[in-house]
Amino acid sequence: MASAAGLRRGASGMGVRALCVLVHGRGQSPEEMESHVLRRLFAPEVAFLLPRAPGGSWYDAKAIDPLTEVTRAQLGEALVRLAEEISVLRSDFPGRPLLLAGFSQGACLSIEYVSLGVDPPQALTAFTGCRVGTSTCARPDSAPAGLPVYLSGSDGDPWIPLNAMMAAAINLGLRGTRLRADVFPGRPHEVSDAEVTMLAGALTDLAAGRPPGFGSAR
Hints:
Blueprint: E1 2-3, E2 6-10, E3 18-23, H1 30-36, E4 46-51, H2 69-92, E5 98-103, H3 105-116, E6 123-127, E7 148-153, H4 162-174, E8 178-183, H5 193-207
Parallel strand pairs: 3-4, 3-5, 5-6, 6-7, 7-8
Antiparallel strand pairs: 1-2, 2-4
Helix pairs in contact: 2-3
C-alpha cells in the first residue's frame, strides 16, 4: 500500500510480532528505503511503515548547522508527523514492540524523536545520523535510560561528519542508553550489508520478545 503517508510493508494480522518505522533521508523516498534496505532484510514477523517527507526532505538545513527559528519549526513539524506515524502503526498492532530506524536525515530525525523522551520506541537504529544543530543549541535531551541504540557512520561521509555522529553517541551514552556505535572507514553514503544485518538481528530479537543486543559482527 502506498499513500502520501508512505508505505506499509511486511507482516500483517496475527503474524505481526514486532513493528518498525523506517525513515528515509534527504531527497529520498520510502520506495528507495524499500529497495535499498527492506529487500535485503529478512524479517517475516515485522510490520513496516515507511513515512514520506513532504517534498522529499524533513527539514531544509544541514543537520550540523546551528538551529534557526525556521529549522526549529520545520523539525518540530517533522517530529509531529513522525509521532503520528508511530501512533498509527502502534494502534493497528497494540502491544507489539517497535523499533525506530532511519538513514541520514531520517536517522537524525529519529535521534531527535528519541531525545524528546515522549512515547519512545523499544529500540533505535540510526544509520549515519547525528543530533540536529550544534552543542551550543538548546535541544531536548530526554532519551530514556536503558533504550537499546545502534548508531553507525563513516569517516568520509559527505553529509554527516564523523565527529557529529560520535558526539551523538556520547550524548546518548551519557543518557544511559544501551549503546553500540560502529564506524565503517571508507563506506559511501549508504546502508552497508553489516548495518542491514544489525537491523535484522534487532528485529529478530524484538519479535522473540527480548531487547535487541546489537551483537552482530560488523
